[in-house]
Amino acid sequence: MSNADIKNRISAALGGYSKSKSKAFITYLTAGLPDYDTTKDLIRAQERGGVDAMELGIPFSDPTADGPVIQEASQEAIKNGASLKKTFEMVKELRSEGCDLPFIFMLYYNTVYHYGVEAFVNSCEEVGVDGFIIPDLPFEEQDEIDNYLRGKDTPILIQLISPVSGDRIPMIAREAKGFIYCVSSMGVTGQDDGFYATINEYLTSVKEASDVPVMMGFGIKTAKDVEPMKDIVDGAIVGSYFLKLMKKSGYDPKTAEEYVRKFKEELNGKP
User: Fold this and answer.
1) DSSP category for residue 93
2) CB burial string 79-115: b at 16+ within 10 A, e below
3) pTM of the prediction?
4) Closest residue by Cα to residue 33 from 79, 100, 84
5) What confidence tens digit (pLDDT) does each residue in 132-151 have?
6) Which pLDDT value is given to residue 68?
7) Do residues 257 and 47 lie in contact, with contact meaning Cβ atoms separated by under 8 Å?
8) Could you tell me whether strands 103-106 and 53-57 are parallel, antiparallel, or unpaired per DSSP bridges?
9) Per-residue confidence (pLDDT) for residue 269, from 0 to 100
10) Which residues have C-beta within 8 Å of that of residue 3, sequence separation ≥ 6?
11) Any idea which residues carry the catalytic annotation?
């Protein structure tokens, strides 16, 4: 069966969480850091640990939505030769090896535009990338890429909603596919300044408007960080902290597997 014949893995993996007390877990890795073989090992380790989907950051020279941790990771990956083309090749290899984990690219529109919008969407479909997040592409400016996504189950464009989305929340949520990525704090990823003061009210407004799972990201380190919002959201996304952990461990697959397993168990109330 070709990747084009597979219904979207994100929807399949996360679809049940919005109607369940269980919570989903997604992590973020910078693709090609420290190299692609290690990235593959870390992906496989997290798959064993029970991660529900994975964001793969495509290294970019000016990642404006990201804090210093992901910026540094992106720069290091670029120095080591990482690229969008090589990341597509890695995903193709993983699919050929039987990896069925949902993959979500996190990248900037300049990268998509440089590659070619239609070519990018087609490459995602061909190798088995299930979706992508483009933090610098506003909802009102998505028409061009939507034209190439129309009629496809894979890939899908994941919508970002932030605490300042306000009256735009129902409009964005109405078009959402796979899940909604809720930014839990103001500013860039990896901040330690705490969550937005009225986060529960904000997350509730998103949840009420959404027909797909609502995932919370930015600033999360442990399952305890999600506890106050656990009855509202359908799961959590960890990026900067996970990258810090990987760097500290020397990109150790066992550490990655154990972190994912522990986080998900604690997230779902298991000792």
Assistant:
1) H
2) eeebbbebbbebbbebbeeebebbbbbbbbbebbeeb
3) 0.92
4) 79
5) 999 999 999 999 999 999 99
6) 80
7) no
8) parallel
9) 87
10) 95, 125, 126, 127, 128, 154
11) 55, 66
Q: 66 pLDDT exceeds 80?
A: no
Q: Tell me the residue type at 151.
A: G
- Find the largest Cα–Cα distance for the chain: 48
Cα-atom radius of gyration of the chain, to the nearest Å?
Answer: 17
Task: Give 183-214 as a DSSP string.
Answer: E-SSSSTT--S---TTHHHHHHHHHHH-SS-E
Contacting residues for 180 by C-beta, under 8 A, at least 6 apart: 158, 159, 160, 161, 172, 173, 206, 210, 212, 213, 214, 215
> Residue 27 pairs with which residues in a beta bridge?
54, 238
Closest CA to 112 of 82, 78, 138, 136: 136
Give the ranges where 80-116 is alpha helix by DSSP (H).
Answer: 84-96, 109-115
Work out the average pLDDT over 230-248.
96
Please, is 121 exposed, middle or buried when counting C-beta atoms within 10 Å of its C-beta (0-12, 13-18, 19+)?
A: buried
Task: Give the contacts of 177 (CB within 8 A, at least 6 positions apart).
Answer: 8, 11, 131, 156, 157, 158, 159, 212
User: Is 84 strand, coil or helix?
Assistant: helix
- CA torsion 173-178-184-186 (nearest 10°) is -70
Across the chain, what does the average pLDDT equal? 91
| Cα–Cα distance, 225 to 221 (Å, whole number) | 7
